[in-house]
From TrEMBL:
InterPro entries: DUF4236. It comes from the Bacteria. It holds the Pfam family DUF4236. The keyword Coiled coil applies. Keywords: Coiled coil. Residues 3-57 form the DUF4236 domain. Residues 158-185 form a coiled coil. This is DUF4236 domain-containing protein. The keyword Coiled coil applies.
Length: 366
């Protein structure tokens, strides 16, 4: 069940770690776990290339839920063409990008994953009865095509019949290989689903690694560390890095369309910072409950500051919260105030509008 001692693994910004000696999706030719599991027991259709970190989202994919995230890609495309824009167009683009950053900060908690039904994944039927000698659909179709082959007059005239038969036979071999890949993918998914249901913590970490639920948060510069010894409880440390996320300047357009840049008022900066931290906390909890059979998550948001006494960087805990799945699922995430929502849970947070966060003690896992 995963009991005995505390286990952990870490995701740093821009780095994807291998949790064990064997990744759960490394078999050659087998679709990434993220794609195959969701096609069996979920609703997202995100294809990944195993062990590469590369993936793409199809039209049936879950990202993005909010216009802020979908507009980000549009803005990024426009920014690549910025050199070709005139001064007023560049100013408008800068303001648009600034506003989109704020919108995304306030929308992080809405970008959560859909739940994975691991029981459904475990109970899915194999693509074909391999152990009973049955062949797969792809090979069956290729064999039928081979058997039905009839050379036309031109083929007979130029003596291409043997070449076309070789091509069809090659297609049979390729189809057999494709069926074998799909079967191995099914075997892996059932094996992983079984381990997740049984509460194997090492498998939990591998699933997190493969699904990359916080990929967009690591783009902000955030890092994560996961701890667990009880399969129903997980502890997550989240590096905030708000100094690189929250804008320090306000951008707007003048009446003539020119760019206006002003320092961000401290009170507004801290207000955005608090919303960012709390939105991330909710998002982390939602994704963990969607991905794994957990009942409770402890999330500790940390910030690194320069200690003027020692002259060294020091990491502070600025928010520590215990979130239970039942309470979280009752919240209306479309209209919630993320900072206020912490009142629903046991938490430690000291925040002043004029000074921002202060250091707090981490909650102890019960």
């Amino acid at each position: 069940m995963g009991f005995g001692f505390r286990k952990s693994f870490k995701i740093a910004p821009g780095i994807r770690l291998n949790v064990g000696s064997k990744s759960i999706g490394v078999s050659a030719g087998v679709k990434g776990l993220r794609y195959s599991v969701n096609s069996r027991g979920g609703s997202r259709m995100t294809a990944s290339i195993p062990n590469t970190g590369i993936y793409y989202t199809s039209t049936g994919g879950k990202r993005s839920r909010t216009t802020a995230y979908s507009r980000q890609r549009e803005i990024q495309a426009r920014q690549k063409e910025a050199a070709r824009l005139n001064e007023l167009e560049q100013a408008a683009l800068a303001v648009d990008a600034y506003q989109n950053t704020l919108d995304r900060i306030h929308s992080i908690h809405k970008e959560a994953d859909d739940p994975i039904n691991w029981i459904k994944v475990r109970s899915t039927n194999p693509p074909f009865r391999k152990n009973e000698g049955q062949i797969g659909l792809h090979e069956n179709a290729a064999i039928e095509k081979l058997h039905n082959y009839k050379p036309n007059l031109v083929t007979k005239l130029f003596g291409h019949q043997e070449k076309e038969l070789e091509k069809l036979q090659k297609e049979v071999m390729e189809a057999r290989k494709k069926d074998d890949e799909e079967y191995r993918s099914w075997e892996r998914d059932v094996r992983i689903a079984t381990k997740v249901i049984e509460g194997d913590i090492d498998t939990y970490f591998e699933v997190i690694q493969e699904f990359e639920p916080f990929d967009d948060l690591t783009e902000f510069g955030s890092g994560f560390e996961f701890f667990a010894e009880n399969p129903k409880v997980m502890e997550i440390e989240f590096d905030v890095h708000s100094d690189t996320v929250v804008p320090k300047e306000q951008l707007s357009l003048t009446k003539t369309g020119k760019l206006s840049v002003k320092p961000m008022p401290k009170s507004k900066y801290f207000d955005i910072q608090q919303d960012y931290v709390c939105s991330c906390v909710l998002r982390i909890a939602r994704d963990m409950f969607a991905l794994l059979p957990l009942d409770t998550v402890y999330i500790h948001a940390t910030e690194t500051i320069l200690d003027s006494i020692t002259g060294y960087q020091r990491q502070l805990t600025i928010l520590s919260v215990k979130i239970d799945k039942r309470t979280l699922n009752k919240l209306n995430f479309e209209h919630i105030d993320c900072s206020d929502s912490m009142q629903n849970f046991k938490h430690n947070m000291k925040f002043k509008k004029t000074a921002g966060f202060s250091e707090v003690e981490k909650l102890t896992v019960e």
